[in-house]
Amino acid sequence: MTGYQSLFRQKSKGKTSRQKFLAGAVILTAVLCGFITVKTLFIKKEAAVTLPQVISETQQRQGGISADVKTLGLLLLGYGGAGHEGGNLTDVLQVIFIDFAKARIALISIPRDLWVTLPNGKSTKINGAFSSFGKEGSASLKQFISKISGLKIDYYAGMDFVGFERTVGINLKGIEVDVAETLDDPWYPIRGNELETCGMTPQEVAEVSAKYSGFELERQFPCRYKHLLFEKGKVVMQGGEALAYVRSRHGSSAGDISRGKRQQEVLLALRKKILSIESLDNLPSFFSDLSKNITTDLDSEVIKFLIPAIQNAKDFEVVRINLSTENVLKADSTSGGGAILIPKEGPNRWLDVQKFLKEEINK
């Protein structure tokens, strides 16, 4: 197991089966922005306890912040994992920010091509930031995203591609996604075909590799790719289809920004499906199985109270926010010609980004 993989390993040592069940339930609940009323869960009801209060009490015991906590910030990470090219890159970076005082939930998409300079001085696309932080990856990445967004990030939840496919296809038996814009991508990678030569000789492969780079190089090997088509409208997707829908890079002129929007569409589809199964008799088993696919740093005391405390959030207003060239970002390129996004006010200058997010959340 690599150091990166160990960071994302499920932290189940010492947990009881009940704690694992609660962990699965709470993570999906938080990830889906608290849109679930769970009346059948076997959780003892506590009088007049709120999530901010519980978080505050936990943080105080750990020497944390004051008792007046009115928000919850969760960083949602999606990554390839073992067996995938670039498995240590976070293809999904979404911030779930819940404001209990304003009864509002913000889904904030951070494009993976955002160019950042890390505390160690290294410049990289933000999707490579996690692995660059080493053993303190999750804690450091939360702090870094807080610096960029101006929002306090309390916890993270991570899921690899295999876990995502299992959650959608096996645990949920498919989801219905409201596709806002037709996705037509002739260049979606086929897993296992990454090294196919497509009939070229080794010399020809060397020649095209020297002549082309980036997407133009990819286009020289058509046998490595397949055609994706998702028509606008309501589309039922299984695990592999939903994964392809959120990962596609070449099906829209808006590229990475459109992908962030599609990720939010899938989150909302997950919410809808969970609400439709809340009365199933096997719900505890469902969440127990789900917990195997998710990693997190949520505290066990918060887990204990999160679901009943967050039930009221199911009726909160939802705000979808995408950092893009339509608002605070602009297209740029690296010294090597790679496409990146940077703030309009200049590289690593985040004040306008923070101001924009604050205004959108408080509208």
TrEMBL record:
<keyword id="KW-0472">Membrane</keyword>
<comment type="similarity">
    <text>Belongs to the LytR/CpsA/Psr (LCP) family.</text>
</comment>
<dbReference type="InterPro" id="IPR050922">
    <property type="entry name" value="LytR/CpsA/Psr_CW_biosynth"/>
</dbReference>
<dbReference type="InterPro" id="IPR004474">
    <property type="entry name" value="LytR_CpsA_psr"/>
</dbReference>
<keyword id="KW-0812">Transmembrane</keyword>
<keyword id="KW-1133">Transmembrane helix</keyword>
<feature type="domain" description="Cell envelope-related transcriptional attenuator">
    <location>
        <begin position="90"/>
        <end position="275"/>
    </location>
</feature>
<dbReference type="Pfam" id="PF03816">
    <property type="entry name" value="LytR_cpsA_psr"/>
</dbReference>
<protein>
    <recommendedName>
        <fullName>Cell envelope-related transcriptional attenuator domain-containing protein</fullName>
    </recommendedName>
</protein>
<feature type="transmembrane region" description="Helical">
    <location>
        <begin position="21"/>
        <end position="42"/>
    </location>
</feature>
